[in-house]
């Protein structure tokens, strides 16, 4: 499941990295609007992490949880999509493009390693460590979400 989730996330991120602006233009969605929407969704996830309301995805015979919700939208959600679109857009030289795509690949390798060995990691850090990491991740994710909303609103105001 870890490999499937990372492959789905990688495919989504690659498509938006290559065709993101064309897709957004076709849908008549601006990058700031996607930033604000992504920030709001990230904030909801962060609040769940902070309050401990994390529902485990349930495997059903119709839906593979590695594809939805793990691969998309948790790993490749609006925040990641906006970040990739902006990083690819700002990469103006071949060397910068290579570094952006290398970073994307490295992130997906790290995601796979952490997901693949998550049971071992949980055994090492115990339940208290899981709660601590969850709360810290929720706090950091909420800060990232708020910053993404601020950046989106700022871009909307500057464009007006």
Report what the structure shows:
There is one protein chain. This protein is an all-alpha fold and 160 residues long. The chain has one domain (2-159). It is built from six helices and no strands. The chain has helices at residues 2-27, 31-51, 66-75, 78-90, 94-116, 118-159. The radius of gyration is 17 Å and the shape is globular. The chain starts with a helix and ends with a helix. The model has no long low-confidence stretch (mean pLDDT 91).
Number of strands: 0
* N-to-C series of helices and strands: HHHHHH
Describe the largest sheet. Answer: none
Q: What percent of the residues sit in helical stretches (DSSP H or I)?
A: over 70%
| Straight-line distance between termini | 45 Å
Fraction of residues in β-strands: under 5%
Whole-number total of structural domains? 1
The whole-number mean of residue pLDDT values reads 91
Based on CA atoms alone, the radius of gyration comes out at 17 Å
| Helix-and-strand structural type | mainly alpha
Poorly predicted ranges: none
Tally the helices: 6
What global shape is seen?
Answer: globular
